[in-house]
Write a structure and sequence with these properties.
By secondary structure, the protein is α/β, with parallel strands linked by helices. The protein is built from 12 helices and 12 strands. The protein has 3 domains: 48 residues, 434 Repressor (Amino-terminal Domain) (Orthogonal Bundle); 122 residues, Response regulator (Rossmann fold); 127 residues, Response regulator (Rossmann fold, 3-Layer(aba) Sandwich), CATH 3.40.50. The radius of gyration is 23 Å and the shape is elongated.
């Protein structure tokens, strides 16, 4: 991984500032992230030294000689899922509107790559929005101590973020399927380490218990069309009359394979996805799904981050955006 030299050269580390002042790095971090936790004299001493050494951050007082207000990084798990592209459009629009530069990074569904990028970016950019991160809470908190960080579709103690209430939407979908007479429903799970999948599965499990539905969990799948096709075989073996997929990419991948297997949708099997991505409304058949406003979520996450810049507020705040079930032709009454 290569971080552009232009960005690295303009930023020194907190440890280097601490060494120059003969204070602890934690003191520098507190001064730059929450000035109220150090004395006014110490705050002035640290910020003056940081600026003199070339440490440029949106958390520092503004300088007249800055040509740009800073850079915000958007970290996404991949660029193949249309939902992530929706998030990117919303985030970029809001970043540009605030006159910041923007940097988009895809971690390619790799946890080690995600951790490496986050640690590097924290020393290079002014703030980070990270969507559906897989790294553990400790890594996220460490990154946030270096650069203001906002999470999208992940909750972690002590960190702020924006969460789309797709778990509630998927619970709605299970209740809807139950109302159609489906008593055995499969759920095709998402990737290992996905906080979103864990939250969605928990909501579906609770709804199934309340309705007396026999819920069958199927595998762990990275969200690709090919993996959706592979999951279709496992779903058929469950003998379920309905299936809920972790997201639309998996569901759409499964639809074509169900057709090849001779499984009629929705007569033999009802199918529900999640996210309402571009293409779900004209898949064959059109996909019943949980509509998730990715573009609005991207805008909200950037707004939350920029609000941190202005107020220097690092207190925890989690905003929720509602999601809802959109019924199309891939679901119908249970037969047999």
């Amino acid at each position: 991984m290569v971080i552009p030299a232009r960005r690295v050269q303009r930023r020194v580390t907190l440890t280097e500032i601490a060494a120059a002042l003969d204070v602890a790095p934690s003191t520098v971090s507190r001064a730059l992230s929450n000035p109220s936790r150090v004395s006014p004299a110490m705050y002035e001493r640290i910020t003056s030294k940081a600026q003199a050494m070339g440490y440029v951050s949106a958390m520092l007082p503004s300088r007249d000689d800055r040509l740009a207000r800073g850079t915000i990084a958007l970290v996404l798990p991949n660029l193949t899922n249309p939902f992530n592209l929706d998030v990117m459009r919303g985030a970029q629009a809001q970043i540009r509107a605030a006159s910041y530069l923007h940097l988009v990074v895809s971690t390619e569904e790799s946890l080690p790559m995600e951790e490496q990028w986050l640690r590097e970016l924290a020393r290079t950019v002014d703030g980070i929005v990270v969507s559906s991160p897989r790294v553990d809470d400790e890594v996220l908190r460490a990154v946030s101590q270096t650069a203001p960080t906002v999470l999208l579709n992940r909750e972690a103690p002590g960190l702020s973020g924006v969460v789309i209430d797709t778990p509630d939407g998927l619970a709605q979908s299970l209740n809807y399927l139950h109302s159609l007479g489906h008593a055995r429903i499969a759920y095709v799970r998402g990737p290992h380490g996905s906080w979103t999948d864990k939250a969605r599965f928990a909501a579906i499990t609770e709804a199934a218990a309340a309705q007396g539905v026999d819920l069958v969990a199927v595998g762990r799948f990275q969200p690709t069309l090919a993996n959706g096709a592979a999951a279709a075989y496992a779903v058929v073996l469950t003998k379920a009359t309905a299936c809920i997929f972790f997201n639309d990419v998996l569901a759409i991948g499964a639809l074509s394979r169900f057709d090849r297997l001779g499984v009629a949708i929705p007569d033999d099997l009802s199918v529900v996805g999640c996210d309402d991505i571009f293409g779900s409304s004209f898949s064959h058949p059109p996909l019943t799904t949980v509509t998730s406003p990715g573009e609005s979520a991207g805008r909200a996450a950037v707004d939350l981050l920029i609000g941190r810049f202005a107020s220097r507020d690092r207190s925890e705040r989690v905003d929720h955006i509602s999601a809802h079930l959109t019924v199309r032709a891939s679901t119908g009454p249970a037969h047999g």
